[in-house]
Amino acid sequence: MITRLCISGYRSLRDVRLELGPLTVVTGANGSGKSSLYRALRLLADVAQGRIIQSLAIEGGLPSALWAGPEAFSRAMKAGNQPVQGLVRKGPVSLKLGFASEEYGYAIDLGIPVPVPRSRFGRDPEIKSEALWTGVVLGRANVFAQRKGPYVSLRDQEGSWRAAYDKLASYDSMLTHCSNPDDGAELLLMREHMRGWRFYDHFRTDSDAPARRPQIGTRTPVLAADGADLAAAIATIQEVGANDELDAAIADAFPGGSIDVRDAEGLFEIEMNQHGLLRSLRTSELSDGTLRYLLLVAALLSPRPSPLMILNEPETSLHPDLLAPLARLIAKASEHSQVIVVSHAATLVSALHKAGARQIVLTKKLGETVVPDDERPAWNWPTR
Fold this sequence. Notes:
Elements: E1 4-10, E2 13-19, E3 23-28, H1 34-49, H2 52-58, H3 62-65, H4 75-79, E4 94-100, E5 104-111, E6 126-134, E7 143-148, E8 151-155, E9 161-165, H5 174-177, H6 185-195, E10 198-201, E11 215-216, H7 230-239, H8 243-253, E12 258-264, E13 267-273, E14 281-282, H9 288-300, E15 308-312, H10 323-333, E16 338-342, H11 346-354, E17 358-365, E18 368-370
Parallel strand pairs: 3-16, 3-17, 10-15, 15-16
Antiparallel strand pairs: 1-2, 1-4, 4-5, 5-6, 6-7, 7-8, 8-9, 11-13, 12-13, 13-14, 17-18
Helix pairs in contact: 1-6, 7-9, 9-10, 10-11
């Protein structure tokens, strides 16, 4: 379980350090930084997929993603006695992302590229440093894999360092290019752990949404990010023995209702029975809110629990009556997966808080996302 998440220099997250629990709900007013926090988590996951440079390019490149304010605020600036202005920098311009559990921690530092003559890719950020360590806080004694520029060093069980790579490209992570079962097993395990993270963000429910169309059915223990394989995911939940949990989740939200999967020569489609209706409804007939709830059920009842699941505004288009059942479903899922929920729905936030979720409220001050009244956990970034 991730216990600490730290982000520096990314959009409004100048320097945010958070303590996480098995179930964490992040809330705040519009523009407080919730979406930036969600995107920062996606960027971390993209490191393990080898896509972080491309993902930053989609956001407009590193200059667009960097914190736009001063490196730090003076006391006079915070008090309003001095205009906000840039001060003499003490460190390089960078975007840093990191997390830690009780067992392992990982952090990455991306910065401005060194100009290369005649290169068309001078706007791509460079990975300046990375580190993998044991325990919560990075230190000289507990780091066992580190990268500085193109050089990667690994520490063996006796504590001796050896140079593993000396020509790692500035756009490649040591997680993807230096992990192997022989001498990079910890890097390999961390990479696969991060590749298991799941993100669900605004499922499409319009008339042309993939989830509304019949799909070829195959065993689907993990719902796709776009929900296209909804029927196959529901059928898999039913077949692996979690049918009781599925029925309970549907009945909790739609009393007297049930769902089944229609199989038309290999094409799977959801059918829903609702109390008072004389026939079942096909997926194309369901309301946006009903379809979205079914998609969340398929994601949260996965037969293959994720080490970390992040839900971004799952309340979108849901009727208020569905928020309490959704909160109970999320709380149940957090018994098997660590769950982070980003939401501004007060009803959902309150229900999750009552279910034992750690609540983090984000606010904005001088354009910076801050966490009021929160003790900042100890954290060290890898040096370049």
